[in-house]
Design brief:
- This protein is α+β, with helices and mostly antiparallel strands.
- Helix content is 68%, strand content 8%.
- The protein is built from ten helices and five strands.
- A five-stranded antiparallel β-sheet has the order 4-3-2-1-5, with no helix packed on it.
- A hairpin with a 2-residue loop joins strand 3 and strand 4 (367-372).
- The chain is elongated.
């Protein structure tokens, strides 16, 4: 084994000399070369960026993975798969697991029972919520967490390394300044020859050159923090968009679930059709449609015409606040009363008295139907 004792002793001597210089500066017994104000500002800005990036990254991970134990385990698992150069498999989310348990419980209790059928309905929507959450986790990790982590583990390590090197060059420069000062004082007392002063001046010039070069390298790296901010800005916008999509999907799923549960509740509370209330005999003749010869025929005729009558009443209701709206996401209508949407298209929307505030009436040419507010951006 090649072991250079002389080189090791030289390195130890340099380290000891720097330590002495650093200690004397802290005690106020030695002069310290100050960095220019612009470089000092860049260093302070870089430290601020690093500190807040760490906090934002850590808290975002907690937001997306609330359990600290799961969070630590996920980081270890991600590290192992990264070292093995393999893709990390997608994990089942908590809502998906809950939905699966509900479906299995429904099979045990009987899917034909009211409780079992409700478990199936809620379980299916829980799995949909879990799928939306998994998509949010994947999108956030790729577009937001990974860029922040890459900055801390890549760019910041390079900046820190160059800053430590700059600090060493500064200590070497101040050591050379102190050495030249002592040499001149000794020369004035005729204790040293001029060669010693020349040697100290040469060492000072070399140290100054190395310090200036390292200061320029460090400055260029620190100025790159502005580009880092721009990159993180785009990542932040992507993260906010992913969250908006996720919450819009969740809101839509929960509205659908509430409608399904209301249907289930009505079917349970009224297992048999409620008999129709007979009209007042004195008004039967005026209430019968033309061509009806009996109350039974009239009721049948009215029930057959009911959907079109309701549609007419809905269109005849007064509209309020008709305006343009831009569609943010694709939406598939669940029944004939709703209007399917395509992302980025423009439609006309308005509301009617007594309508659910989470819905609007949308029009596209001759097509018309209810549309969810969360899928729209209202335009002035």
């Amino acid at each position: 084994m090649d072991f250079n004792v002389k080189k090791l002793a030289s390195g130890a001597g340099v380290f000891f000399t720097r330590a002495v210089q650093f200690t004397e500066e802290k005690l106020g017994q030695a002069e310290k070369t100050e960095l220019d104000p612009h470089l000092e500002n860049l260093i302070a800005r870089a430290d601020c960026t690093k500190n807040w990036t760490e906090k934002i990254l850590r808290q975002t991970e907690v937001l997306l993975q609330p359990n600290p134990i799961d969070h630590t385990g996920a980081r270890i698992e991600e590290f192992i798969y990264d070292k093995l150069d393999k893709k990390l498999p997608s994990k089942t989310t908590n809502p998906e697991l809950l939905g699966q348990y509900m479906l299995e419980a429904a099979n045990e209790f009987g899917p034909g029972t009211p409780y079992g059928s409700t478990l199936i309905t809620v379980g299916e929507y829980q799995k949909r919520l879990g799928g939306a959450e998994r998509e949010l986790l994947q999108t956030s990790a790729a577009t937001f967490l990974t860029p922040l982590r890459n900055f801390l583990e890549g760019d910041w390590r390079t900046i820190s390394k160059e800053r430590r090197l700059l600090e060493n060059r500064r200590l070497d420069l101040d050591i050379c300044k102190a050495r030249l000062k002592k040499a001149k004082q000794a020369e004035a007392k005729a204790a040293l020859l001029s060669e010693e002063v020349d040697k100290a001046e040469h060492e000072l010039r070399v140290a100054q050159t190395e310090f200036d070069r390292q200061a320029e390298v460090t400055r260029l790296l620190l100025e790159g923090i502005s580009s880092t901010h721009l990159n993180h800005l785009r990542c932040l916008q992507d993260f906010a968009e992913a969250q908006a999509t996720y919450y819009a999907q969740c809101h839509h799923y929960m509205q659908d679930l509430q409608r399904e549960l209301n249907k289930c509740a009505n079917s349970v509370s009224t297992p048999h059709p409620t008999p129709a209330v007979c009209p007042d005999p004195d008004h039967l003749s005026s209430a019968f449609p033309s061509g009806s010869s009996s109350p039974r025929d009239a009721v049948s005729s009215l029930s057959n015409h009911r959907p079109s009558t309701l549609a007419m009443e809905q269109t005849q209701l007064p509209v309020t606040g008709s305006r343009k709206a831009k569609v943010l996401y694709d939406y598939d209508a669940h029944d004939v009363s709703e209007l399917s949407l395509l992302a980025d298209e423009l439609i006309t929307v308005y509301t009617v008295p007594g309508m659910d505030p989470d819905w609007l009436i949308g029009e596209r040419g001759n097509q018309k139907g209810k549309v969810p507010v969360t899928y729209l951006e209202l335009l002035s």
